[in-house]
Amino acid sequence: DVKVTQSSRYLVKRTGEKVFLECVQDMDHENMFWYRQDPGLGLRLIYFSYDVKMKEKGDIPEGYSVSREKKERFSLILESASTNQTSMYLCATGGSYEQYFGPGTRLTVT
Amino acid sequence: KQEVTQIPAALSVPEGENLVLNCSFTDSAIYNLQWFRQDPGKGLTSLLLIQSSQREQTSGRLNASLDKSSGRSTLYIAASQPGDSATYLCAVISGGSYIPTFGRGTSLIVHP
């Protein structure tokens, strides 16, 4: 079974802090994705990566950056957290066009 | 640009009913369609994947069908149970991309 893990289930940070969310997959998939999910807005793609050190912006990259130094690990970075980044963050990995999701991180920025 | 719509947005049914959730997409040139389940506060769990050459997939009480020409997929849940209560999302991967397009989901409540 594919396993996708995220570093935290719940996280509370203060405005202005730098926040790191990590995602690890064990299936050797090339593609990894970061989404945020908000009520009424559905899933929105922040960034994705199709290979180590490669990244592409999704629909809402502003205020975020990513890092992929190893194939199995994809990190999402909030450079200076703001209250409008309070959300559920979901990591996903994909092989042959099928996606597998991690458990999610509920981030609250106060 | 691919658009995915799920109707209804919410559904409440008594236990034991057979039910159908709908997913429609605007561009029929798809690689596959995937159905997910999401429990409150959790990640998405993959239920069924239908590749473009397939017409349906089955897993237990779940059956998903795909009609590419009409841009539709249905998820059929037989003999619904309270444990089926969750949000169900469909996602389509279109030709030329490995980035899926998600619907907004159908929120299902099965009451005893």
Task: Outline the secondary-structure elements.
The complex is a heterodimer of chains A (110) and B (112).
Chain A: E1 4-6, E2 10-13, E3 19-25, E4 31-38, E5 42-51, E6 54-57, E7 64-70, E8 73-78, E9 87-94, E10 99-101, E11 105-109
Parallel strand pairs in A: 2-11
Antiparallel strand pairs in A: 1-3, 3-8, 4-5, 4-9, 5-6, 7-8, 9-10, 9-11
Chain B: E1 4-7, E2 10-14, E3 19-25, E4 30-38, E5 44-51, E6 56-59, E7 62-67, E8 72-77, E9 86-94, E10 101-102, E11 106-111
Parallel strand pairs in B: 2-11
Antiparallel strand pairs in B: 1-3, 3-8, 4-5, 4-9, 6-7, 7-8, 9-10, 9-11
Descriptive overview:
The complex is a heterodimer of chains A (110) and B (112). Chain A is an all-beta fold. Chain A has strands at 4-6, 10-13, 19-25, 31-38, 42-51, 54-57, 64-70, 73-78, 87-94, 99-101, 105-109. In chain A, strands 2, 4, 5, 6, 9, 10 and 11 form a seven-stranded mixed sheet that branches. In chain A, strands 1-3-8-7 form a four-stranded antiparallel sheet, with no helix packed on it. In chain A, a hairpin with a 2-residue loop joins strand 7 and strand 8 (73-78). In chain B, strands 2, 4, 5, 9, 10 and 11 form a six-stranded mixed sheet that branches. In chain B, strands 1-3-8-7-6 form a five-stranded antiparallel sheet, with no helix packed on it. The mean pLDDT of chain B is 94. In chain B, a hairpin with a 6-residue loop joins strand 9 (86-94) and strand 10 (101-102). In chain B, 0% of the residues lie in helices and 59% in strands. The A-B interface holds A 4, 31, 33, 42-43, 45, 48, 50, 58, 88, 90, 92, 94, 97-104, 106 and B 31-32, 34, 36, 41-46, 49, 89, 91, 93, 98-100, 102-105.
